[in-house]
Amino acid sequence: MNKVELPADIEKVMLDRHLIFSNVDDEGINESRFIAADENILTDAIIALSLGKNVLLKGPTGSGKTKLAETLSHLFKQPMHSINCSVDMDAEALLGFKTIGVEAGVNTIEFVPGPVVKSMNMGHLLYIDEINMAKPETLPILNSVLDYRRTLFNPFTGEVIKAKRTFGVIAAINEGYIGTVQLNEALKNRFVVIDIPYVQNDILKKVLVNESNLRNEAMIDTFVKLSEDLITQVSNGQIPEEAASIRALIDTCDLAEYLPPLRAIQRGIVDKLEEEREKSAVMNIAATLFS
């Protein structure tokens, strides 16, 4: 991938916000960076963050949403604090909690900051993974963080926190999964939405070469074809999205360096599925390719 070409006025915006930017072909980024057929995905995310926008990455599981967030963290040279949302997530998981400490031999009450407070105070990136897994009543605490105010009232300390200028928010969403809820419009309107499609063809081959242990090029080509067939079955509603996850495919390729490919597929993809019909569909496709 070539260097990201940004408009001169965007570079000025980044300078005004004290953002430090490092291009994608710098050492330490190439081997693990986000790769997609549409290079505009990365460019658009960079520009949105530079403008102080919140970015919502939308796409199927294993499509590279977390990898894109990590790449942005590298590019802006900003540490990233992560929240993994679930139905059990509460204000403490977001903001932090109080605990008992000892100072000069005396017990004291100390506040341990959570990922939201840390990222705001330090001007770092905040990554909210699977944001639509959180209970709707939990997320409004972030409304003032995600709009122009960039502030937060911390109920545990009574203080109002103002985020540093370099603070940024990236969230990820998998729509239609069990346990997820639809984001309300007030929350979704606080984000710029970037759709992340499945990685396919030559781009997928490049990902597998870079990120898996498999070194047999012919077998990698066959796994690329397997992924294409699985995505078709997902589109037809025959198998769930997780069967076509790129993350699962990389695991399978790692195993295939040491196991027969069909056994690797069994362990890396098939055994994660719930229904026997789905398992059989995947193994039938695999058997035709790896017979």
UniProtKB/TrEMBL annotation:
GO terms for molecular function: ATP binding; ATP hydrolysis activity. It comes from the Bacteria. SUPFAM superfamilies: P-loop containing nucleoside triphosphate hydrolases. Residues 51-197 form the AAA+ ATPase domain. InterPro entries: AAA+_ATPase (IPR003593), ATPase_dyneun-rel_AAA (IPR011704), CbbQ/NirQ/NorQ/GpvN (IPR050764), ClpA/B (IPR001270), P-loop_NTPase (IPR027417). Transmembrane segments: none annotated. Belongs to the CbbQ/NirQ/NorQ/GpvN family. This is Putative nitric-oxide reductase.
